[in-house]
């Protein structure tokens, strides 16, 4: 069964209404538990749960340490093109916006990549708008092949592909896919995606399963926080991540928490999410989904990102530019979104060290988690297979 069916069978609005009545004693009962099930997660996500962030943070920290060790994986986005045929109302690359459109050629991509390599990155996220005409599958293959010589881990954040096309990407050297559904609410989805291929909700939602089926090693999902009620999206995210973790148990499932703020143009999010709500969402998900990787990008300010390091985060971007060619020629024009944390990568790494964690520049490996449950789990797998 695909996740589309599960989503359509679940009355998330009713669950949101129900948890509005959760009592503090129900939340307290969950906080003592060694394992948090889906109903428990709902209690933690409830309005009453907001009064227990400190207790949740303590548990989230302990779980994250046990599962992932004291490491934070650093990565950087590399924008290939800002050409896009879609008109997502919240995006700086929206086809209706009058911004310079740039698609990098292979030499320019390698030159951008050289900056990232010089800074120490081994994990790069290749990003583009929905531009199959300027970035067809064959071209993406060439790019991945060229970059895989220098980068041990390449993830894609591009338009949804077919299963055979994902297989080609994996064969060329891509090992990860990040694809946010943006919102799991079909009505909201239709209203913020007025035209283009992206209007096809199911094609997008099922893309991560197509990638999982061909063996992608890491799959990232997320909601754009601000498009819809954050508790509604939090429930959908929990269900989606749980489904993927069970179906693709050998794949690292990650959840990102992109919050809509400071968007180019005049778009204003209908459901702005404050810091407290963002933290509650992350902590509740961590207590429910112990093994999911949590990603926090440079959309968030440095102070909040630093605060989140010891709580539940496992991956952070650093030094990001969100316009094609931005590492060589930084300009804000043509950017997808405004970067809040403008620190250099080495400054982000220093902040991680200061928090008592180790910044990891290349794709993680279970060896780096020596002593953690994650490492022990892999060791048992390896031992069992010889
Ligand atoms: S969010 Fe993606 S698909 Fe939508 S306009 Fe921006 S780049 Fe294009």
In words, what does this structure look like?
It is a single chain. Helix 3 packs across helix 4, helix 7 packs parallel to helix 8 and helix 12 runs parallel beside helix 13. The chain is of the alpha/beta class and 386 residues long. The protein has one domain: TIM Barrel, CATH 3.20.20. The chain is globular, with a radius of gyration of 20 Å. It is built from 16 helices and nine strands. Helix 8 links the parallel strand 3 and strand 4. An eight-stranded parallel barrel has the order 1-2-3-4-5-6-7-8, surrounded by five helices.
List key phrases describing it.
386 residues; alpha/beta; TIM Barrel; eight-stranded parallel barrel; 16 helices; 9 strands; 42% helix; globular; disordered C terminus; binds iron/sulfur cluster; catalytic activity; Aldolase_TIM
